[in-house]
Design goal:
Elements: H1 3-16, H2 24-28, H3 31-51, H4 54-77, H5 83-97, H6 99-102, H7 110-127, H8 143-156, H9 164-184, H10 187-207, H11 212-236, H12 246-263
Length: 264
């Protein structure tokens, strides 16, 4: 990005936040009120990437950049830090975490870089007096994403299954405990065991190098696509989905699946 374009964006945000003639909505915002928009824009970036829509990706990256500028402007007004501090901080971090690029270290593979990255991050946590391996995994992450990050951190220090058999056995164990809790009718226990089951399934995704959040998002997309195909078939037959039996709906679902496979 040309420096002039970045300067222009910073100036626009400063003007929007100017008490003398700025935007009333922008002036009312703070870190907490803007945070949900920041998360939403990050997801919209991911969505554009998943759809291969590069024009939309450009637009969404701009929206995400605006969020960074917005937070930095609020911080600057409170004398906390500036956008320049943010940019300098991430530049220093990238420089520090890539000694094989900007220094004399030699790292031959992506796996070795991942190990080195964790070593550097551990030193950074120590400097911040965050001694625990899991200390800086953000609690605000989506639950699936945070579960996978927690598991990855633990695995890097050897707390992991030797192969997928252990992971799958753990899933079966947790499923049995869910079934037992359901039979007992103990709602708090059911919820607890479901959490353990979801955590274990997420661990399987990590173990086979799949991103749990992306996998579930794809599963959501597949379900939506097939359900909408069912609705289209019923609309063509002028039938109301609410009046069909479960058996009829199951047959429609299988038809939608088969039609999808034939098109593949």
């Amino acid at each position: 990005m040309q420096q002039g374009a970045m300067d222009r964006l910073l100036a626009i945000m400063a003007r929007l936040r100017d008490p003398d003639g700025g935007c009333p909505w922008d002036l009312e915002q703070d870190f907490a009120s803007i945070a949900p928009y920041t998360i939403e824009e990050a997801y919209e970036v991911a969505d554009a990437i998943a759809r291969g829509d590069h024009q939309h990706l450009k637009e969404e990256l701009g929206d995400l950049l605006l969020q960074v500028v917005f937070h930095a402007q609020i911080a600057s007004e409170r004398n906390l830090f500036t956008f320049e501090d943010v940019a300098t901080g991430i530049s220093d971090k990238m420089f520090r975490r890539h000694p094989h690029v900007f220094g004399d270290a030699t790292i031959e593979t992506a796996e070795a870089q991942t190990q080195n990255w964790e070593t550097i991050k551990a030193a950074e946590r120590k400097d911040k007096q965050q001694s625990g391996i899991l200390a800086d995994v953000p609690t605000a992450l989506p639950a699936l994403m945070r579960a996978q990050k927690l598991q990855s951190r633990a695995a890097r220090v050897g707390f992991d299954w030797p192969d997928t058999r252990g992971v799958i056995a753990k899933i079966r164990e947790e499923l049995a405990e869910v079934e037992e809790a359901i039979e007992q009718g103990d709602q708090p226990h059911i919820a607890e065991e479901l959490g353990d089951l979801l955590f274990s399934v997420t661990n399987l995704a990590r173990f086979v190098d799949a991103d749990a959040e992306s996998v579930l998002r794809d599963g959501n997309t597949k379900f939506t696509r097939r359900f909408e195909a069912m609705e289209a078939m019923l609309a063509a037959q002028e039938k109301d989905i609410r009046k069909l039996s479960l058996e009829a709906l199951e047959a429609l679902w299988n038809t939608a699946k088969e039609s999808e496979r034939n098109k593949a």
